[in-house]
């Protein structure tokens, strides 16, 4: 799964998307699939996954790539015993790869018909992404180099699947030493108002910060 938080309407609503390519021949013609293929004799799995993304969907620069799980159900591919190793790849929200015409971004909560067990692979990868956002610095992989707190909260909300309060997120990430204030402000929006401060991540690499943490949905408002 190659995941990215992208705008889904003119009001800049954010949602997590996955990149799929469409089969054009054979029994799976018309169905959508995760990019993938066979591992070469001289490759390890991460190298093969990166190559498949390059060759199949022209994605060359990921901000994060990791193995999610192995899939070995004997019946996962009709008529053939085939194992698969699922990977989670993440692109920052401002990346705009030039993808082929047989490839498209789909919301993970509105997938088309996919081949074999690819919907399960996507579901596992989404769970891994949400978990890693809770206890590691993986948020850097979704975000552009600089961002406002409200934008960052939107990215987390899209990936986690529930609302995220910007003030609470700032408190958590600041306590973990993840956020750095840039000393500049974002340009004012169409409605004007006070310019929002810009932030960046202290480092753009994966690090475990709070092993047992979970970013939970906000509770009911206090009365």
Radius of gyration computed on alpha carbons? 19 Å
Shape: globular
CATH topology of the largest domain: Nucleoside Triphosphate Pyrophosphohydrolase
One letter per element, helices H and strands E, the order comes to EEEHEEEHHHHEE
| Helix fraction bin | 25-40%
DSSP helix count? Answer: 5
Q: Average pLDDT value?
A: 91
Give the CA-CA distance, first to last residue. 42 Å
Sheet with the most strands, sense and barrel status: 6 strands, mixed
β-sheet strand percentage = 15-25%
Low-pLDDT segments, ≥5 res: none
Structural class from helices and strands? alpha+beta
| Count of separate structural domains | 2
- The level 1 CATH classification of the largest domain is Alpha Beta
Walk me through this protein's architecture.
With about 220 residues, the protein is of the alpha+beta class. The chain folds into two domains: about 1-135, Nucleoside Triphosphate Pyrophosphohydrolase (Alpha-Beta Complex), CATH 3.90.79; about 135-200, Arc Repressor Mutant, subunit A. It has helices spanning about 45-55, 120-135, 140, 150-160, 165-175; strands spanning about 1-5, 15-20, 30-35, 65-70, 85-90, 105, 180-185, 195-200. The model has no long low-confidence stretch (mean pLDDT about 90).
């Amino acid at each position: 799964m190659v995941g990215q938080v992208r705008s889904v309407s003119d009001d800049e609503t954010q949602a997590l998307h996955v990149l799929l390519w469409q089969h054009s021949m054979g029994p799976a013609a018309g169905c959508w699939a995760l990019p993938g293929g066979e591992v070469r004799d001289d490759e390890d799995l991460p190298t093969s996954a990166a190559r498949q993304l390059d060759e199949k969907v022209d994605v060359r620069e990921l901000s994060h790539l990791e193995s999610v799980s192995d899939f070995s159900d004997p019946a996962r591919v009709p008529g053939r015993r085939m194992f698969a190793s699922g990977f989670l790849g993440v692109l920052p929200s401002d990346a705009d790869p030039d993808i082929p015409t047989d490839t498209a971004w789909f919301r993970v909560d509105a997938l088309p018909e996919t081949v074999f067990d690819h919907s399960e692979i996507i579901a596992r990868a989404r769970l891994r992404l949400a978990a890693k956002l809770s206890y590691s610095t993986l948020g850097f992989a979704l975000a552009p180099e600089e961002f406002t707190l409200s934008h960052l909260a939107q990215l987390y909300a899209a990936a986690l699947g529930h609302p995220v309060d910007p003030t609470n997120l700032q408190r958590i990430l600041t306590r973990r030493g993840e956020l750095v204030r840039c000393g500049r402000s974002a340009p004012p929006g169409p409605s004007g108002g006070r310019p929002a401060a810009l932030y960046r991540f202290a480092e753009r690499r994966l690090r475990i910060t709070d092993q047992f943490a979970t970013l939970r949905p906000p509770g009911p408002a206090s009365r």
